[in-house]
Amino acid sequence: MVEPSLGLSADNDNDSLGGRSLQWSERRSRLEELIATLRIADELAAGSYLITSGELAELMDVHASAVTSRGEEWVWRNWQVSRVRRESNQILWQLERIAISKEPSADTHPS
Fold this sequence. Notes:
By secondary structure, the protein is α+β, with helices and mostly antiparallel strands. The chain is 36% helix and 22% strand.
């Protein structure tokens, strides 16, 4: 699978920024981790894979109790998260990609 570039490569670092290069490197690393997380969520949704509460908590970077206390269905970022079923002592969840529509801005006047 070809990964789209976000222009976040190390080649964009500029040593002449006087210390900002390290800060940019850290920010870039966090952004790359975020993109990886979002791609994983998309892959889980596209494949209709079921994941455990613990796996979902890892994906969301929250404690497992934060996942189970949210109820049967809720939205996380671009995905509808649904409690599908229980297998032995584990709850299984499914992600479904949702379309995000832009809210009309205050500057937009209906015609």
